[in-house]
Amino acid sequence: MNTKKDKEFDYKTFMKEGTLDPSEINRGPGARQKRREVGKTRITIRIDEEIIKKFKKIAPGGRGYQSLINIALREWLAAQGVKELVSNKISEVVDQAVVSIQNVAQSSK
Q1: pLDDT digits 0-9 by tens, 7-60
Q2: Which residue, 2, 39, 76, 109, shows the most beta carbons closer than 10 Å to its own?
Q3: Would you give the distance in Å from CA 2 to the centre of its chain?
Q4: What's 61's DSSP letter?
Q5: So where are the chain's domains?
Q6: Distance between alpha carbon 64 and the CA centroid of its chain, in Å?
Q7: Range list of H helices, the chain
Q8: DSSP assignment letter at 22
Q9: Which residues fall within 8 angstroms of residue 58, CB to CB, at 6 or more apart?
Q10: CA dihedral defined by 30, 20, 41, 78, rounded to 10 degrees?
């Protein structure tokens, strides 16, 4: 998904409203072991320079910005799941309303 072209995704609002606490980013040998246990995968990805700069600015001392990107992606995916759930529920409610209106219209004939 290209968030630059997605009218619904607002990066600035997402970052302002996020509950992100950079002090919670773990570093050191214990954190490395935890990452191994969690099962993260090393990849190569191209990200806009302005995005990297923003995340480095948010991260304490510019360290841990990749973890912040991971958290942002995780939260974005969770938000997409909520949107889908709400959309499905709205469709169900609308369908039920249509059936109810049709029943009322038929019974008044």
Answers
A1: 666 666 766 666 556 666 666 777 777 766 667 788 899 999 999 999 999 888
A2: 76
A3: 13
A4: G
A5: 11-107
A6: 19
A7: 11-17, 29-38, 49-58, 65-107
A8: G
A9: 15, 20, 22, 65, 68
A10: 130
